[in-house]
Amino acid sequence: MEILVIMMTASGVQNAKGVFDFTLTGIDGKPMPLAQFKGHSILLVNTASECSHTPQFEGLEKLWEAYKDKGLVIIGVPSNDFGAQEPGNATEIATFCTKNYGVTFPLADKSVVSGVEAIPVYRWAGDQTGLLGRPNWNFHKYLFGRDGQFIDWFASTTEPQSGKVKRAVEKALAP
Predict the structure, then answer these.
(1) Is a pLDDT exceeding 70 seen at residue 7?
(2) Topology adopted by domain 19-173
(3) E-strand spans in the chain?
């Protein structure tokens, strides 16, 4: 007889081995298991439609277009956590992103990404980075390798088209 033991971390997240162990809810309301992206590098970004950083959607789309065929997946996670700058519902958010920035990369449903109520993948990622690497504003970025392991984080002020982000992405995608 096998006994399954589930260990919990201080943040309440199961002992995940990597980002592919999590499932988000897509902007369409359907499950978005991150396991579908195994073998890809993931850039997870908490987004907001009414933020001074909102124009980063354009840079994220350019990054997606440049690297998606090489194995990068960008996932936008709309959040109303900071400054109540994402008041819309799923349909409004999706329409805004497509109409204003031509976003074609995957979007999750609006989610909590900070504090004790954060969705599990954000609690787990925060455990990987420590206090300074947790989101404290919109457009915080987490980068994960093809193996699902945490690689790096980028502050909200770091533009998606910056050399720092591009170098990290290229390193993550290197064979």
Answers:
(1) no
(2) Glutaredoxin (3.40.30)
(3) 23-25, 31-33, 41-47, 72-78, 141-144, 150-154
